[in-house]
Write a structure and sequence with these properties.
- The protein is an alpha/beta fold.
- It has a single domain, classed as Purple Acid Phosphatase, chain A, domain 2.
- The chain has helices spanning 35-49, 68-79, 135-148, 167-170, 177-184, and strands at 2-4, 11-17, 55-58, 85-87, 109-113, 116-120, 153-156, 190-195, 202-206, 209-213, 220-221, 230-231, 236-243, 248-254.
- The protein has a 7-stranded mixed beta sheet with strand order 1-5-6-7-8-10-9, with helices on one face. The chain has a 5-stranded mixed beta sheet with strand order 4-3-2-13-14, with no helix packed on it. Strands 11-12 form a two-stranded antiparallel sheet.
- It is globular and about 50 Å long.
Length: 269
């Protein structure tokens, strides 16, 4: 367990970012826009709005061009804020050079923040777009949840365990969501699960807790679309206030404008 400090005696402040899709060259474009600039604009908004941040969690697809240069530049940028930050891989990431926050990539990472436990899971499967949490990792998760006891707990992974009613992206969901559901059915302390992958804001009740997806820091997917389609929504991120009595609050924030040059008519990438 990695213990983090909270700035506020009443609640902890966690920022959730996801799907930055950074390129090997910071000037390169992705579906017409510059993901580096959009990511930096999101981070500047985070810092301007929220003065006391306890942790930042990135739920994958950190890179579109997954190479050491991309990840090194990301790490150098994030380290300048002196805020603890953690990341799990997505399907576009390369696990052989991904900057894992844990020493054992197939084991959950447990963070302690105030009264809360935060558990980071690796749902990425090499060579696949969809995701799965390995049987080994589920076994470790069971042990971690037992270690958390009755402390309120937040989970994080890349792939969405709940359907989004979009046929094309739901084909690439967390394939063994039923196994995760069966384990978490016995874990009443779990309050929420945050994920990326779907490039949109959503909140669904899943048994006794909520599953939350968060907007990408670059481009957004059109909700309830049978085929790939970009949405005319700005980049964003999610704030989670984790109160020490087990209550929690979440809010999505977005930038004021679409990324410059966005190819809204593009039909895939």
């Amino acid at each position: 367990m990695l213990k983090l400090s909270s700035h506020n005696p009443q609640h902890a402040c966690v920022i959730h970012i996801t799907d930055t899709h950074l390129m090997a060259n910071a000037e390169s474009r992705f579906v017409g826009m510059n993901p580096e600039q959009s990511f930096h604009a999101v981070m500047q908004d985070v810092l301007a709005r929220h003065r006391k941040i306890d942790a930042i969690i990135h739920t994958g697809d950190l890179a579109q061009e997954a190479c050491p240069e991309t990840y090194t530049r990301y790490l150098n940028y994030m380290q300048r804020f002196a805020i603890p930050f953690f990341q799990v891989p997505g399907n576009h990431d390369a696990q052989d050079c991904f900057p894992f926050s844990q020493t054992a990539p197939q084991q959950p990472l447990l963070l302690e923040l105030g009264q809360w436990c935060i558990v980071l899971l690796n749902s990425a499967v090499a060579g696949r777009i969809d995701g799965s949490i390995s049987a080994e990792q589920l076994g470790h998760l069971s042990e971690v949840l037992a270690q958390c006891g009755n402390r309120p707990t937040l989970l994080a992974c890349h792939h969405h365990p709940m359907l989004m009613q979009s046929a094309w992206i739901d084909a690439h969901c967390l394939k063994n969501a039923a196994d995760l559901r069966a384990l978490l059915a016995q874990s009443a302390q779990v309050k929420a699960l945050i994920c990326g992958h779907v490039h949109q804001d959503s909140a669904q009740q899943w048994q006794h807790f909520q599953c939350l997806s968060t907007p990408s820091t670059c481009v957004q997917f059109k909700p309830r679309s049978e085929q790939f389609a970009l949405d005319a929504c700005p980049a964003g991120y999610r704030l989670l206030e984790l109160h020490h009595d087990g209550q929690w609050h979440s809010q999505v924030y977005r930038l004021n404008a679409l990324p410059e040059g966005l190819a809204q008519q593009q039909r895939g990438y």
